[in-house]
Amino acid sequence: MTEKPPLVETLEVLIGKPRRFRRTLAIHAFQELPMSTKDEVAIKVIVELQAKPGKRAGLKSLLESVAAKHGPGTPGFLGSTRYEVLENPNSLVEIADWRSAELRAAAMQKVVASGAYAPLEKMLAAPFRATVIRQLP
Fold first, then answer.
1. 3-state SS of 11-55?
2. Which of 35, 71, 100, 125 lies at a CB distance of 3.0 to 4.6 Å from 67, suitable for a disulfide?
3. What b/e sequence results for 62-92 when a residue is b if at least 16 CB atoms lie within 10 Å of its CB, and e otherwise?
4. pLDDT, tens digit, 9 for 90 and up, residues 55-95
5. Whole-angstrom distance between the N-terminal and C-terminal Cα of the chain?
């Protein structure tokens, strides 16, 4: 009998569990997966977006749909969360976790090529700002 990868074993355990429990277990499983190469360093990407007046809800919806469609199963993608900026009702911040900058770059090329972000042009009041960070050693 062949040994199953840790993720497959984890997903099999998650079937039939309550949704909240499945999400928590999946997050922990991904955190415990080994990195595929020694050179990979986990990163966070902070994306600041300024929506045109009245377009923030649409922008949030677009980001959520892109994350739902292109996030799960994407090599290196660990998850993302969107935030509102309290001082600016037209601003959003998304913070995404990735296994490495290289995996993120490859994934972003595919998403952009798919046209998933094309509607951004009509929603943004200014170019977005993306900052890639990693924890200091």
1. HHHHCCCCHHHHHHHHHHHHHHCCCCCCCCCCEEEEEEEEECCCC
2. 71
3. bbeebbeebbeebebbbebebeeeeeeebbb
4. 999 999 999 999 888 888 899 999 999 999 999 999 999 99
5. 40
Q: Residue 71: which of 122, 132, 114, 35 has the closest Cα?
A: 114
**pLDDT value of position 8:** 41
pLDDT of 20 strictly over 50 = no
49 class by beta-carbon count within 10 Å (0-12 exposed, 13-18 middle, 19+ buried): buried
Looking at residue 41, its pLDDT comes to 81
Q: What's the one-letter identity of residue 26?
A: A
CB count, 10 Å around CB of 128?
14
Q: How far apart are CA 72 and CA 108, in angstroms?
A: 14
- Read off the tokens for 8: 């497959």
Structure confidence at residue 30 as a pLDDT band (50, 70, 90) = very low
